[in-house]
Amino acid sequence: GEEERRQLAMELRERESKVNHLKNRFQVLISRISKEDENPDGEMTHAQYIVKTAKEREMLQVQGDNLDAEIKRVEKEARKMDKTLAILKGCNVQYKTQFKKA
What is residue 48's predicted lDDT score, i.e. its pLDDT? Predict the structure, then answer.
């Protein structure tokens, strides 16, 4: 029971690390794209600014949707792990009571 809890906690930390890694990678891509969109002299026309803002808004929306989906998936998995842990604890209690009776 305790070993499985540690293993599940370690797995959760690994997945959180992967999420953070993906967030960082996304930020690097955003910065590269924004550098490519600028004029060589660094100034933007109004139309370019509107297009850039729309792209950023769309990318942020997609990122938010992906993060929401990931959060829901991880929360669902955590609930399943909690249920499994509760079942294991129940089995462990039953197992201990069998030894006390004997």
Answer: 82
